[in-house]
């Protein structure tokens, strides 16, 4: 009997949805990045268990992640990264990388995604504060 989490880990559409949400994008925004497809088309993509590598590469580019990172994404990797990454605990990607190196390389891409998103949020926050 197949484990539910194993089945979900192979569902490419769910991986696209998870990375899109981690990146803070709506379905409409991802659709715009994919050449102007509708949010309904993005929703259908996210419900697809199988997506061709060519289409997955286009999606990875739109999400600003690597194809390998998108294909290798798992809940365990995201949870590990989230639980172990605290902004005020003096933990950064370089100290995590020493421990992550033996786990799996796609986790590095996950960390990079979080760091890029955090940097964008910091820049937006500083911009808002300066405007006031």
Please, could you describe this protein's structure?
By secondary structure, the protein is mainly α. It has a single domain, classed as 434 Repressor (Amino-terminal Domain), CATH 1.10.260. The chain is built from nine helices and no strands. The longest helix has 26 residues, at 106-131.
SSE topology:
Layout: H1 4-9, H2 12-22, H3 27-33, H4 39-47, H5 53-63, H6 67-71, H7 75-84, H8 93-100, H9 106-131
Question: What is the gist of this entry?
Answer:
The protein has 9 helices and no strands.
Jot down its keywords:
434 Repressor (Amino-terminal Domain), mainly alpha, 132 residues
Would you count the extended β strands for me? 0
How many distinct helices?
A: 9
Broad shape? globular
Order of helices and strands: HHHHHHHHH
What's the structural domain tally? 1
Distance between the termini: 58 Å
Mean pLDDT across residues:
76
Biggest sheet layout: none
CATH class category name: Mainly Alpha
CATH superfamily: lambda repressor-like DNA-binding domains
Based on the coordinates given, report the CATH architecture: Orthogonal Bundle
User: And the CATH topology?
Assistant: 434 Repressor (Amino-terminal Domain)
Secondary-structure class: mainly alpha
What level of helicity do the residues show?
over 70%
Strand composition percent:
under 5%
């Amino acid at each position: 009997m197949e484990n539910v989490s194993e089945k979900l880990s192979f569902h490419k559409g769910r991986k696209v949805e998870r990375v899109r949400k981690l990146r803070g994008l709506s379905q409409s925004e991802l659709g715009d990045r994919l050449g102007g497809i509708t949010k309904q088309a993005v929703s259908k993509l996210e419900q697809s268990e199988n997506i061709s590598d060519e289409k997955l590469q286009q999606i990875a580019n739109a999400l600003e992640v690597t194809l390998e990172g998108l294909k290798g994404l798992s809940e365990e990797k995201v949870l590990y990264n989230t639980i172990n990454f605290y902004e005020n605990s003096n933990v950064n990607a370089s100290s995590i990388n020493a421990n992550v190196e033996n786990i799996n390389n796609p986790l590095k891409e996950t960390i990079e995604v979080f760091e890029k998103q955090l940097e964008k949020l910091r820049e937006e926050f500083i911009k808002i504060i300066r405007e006031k």
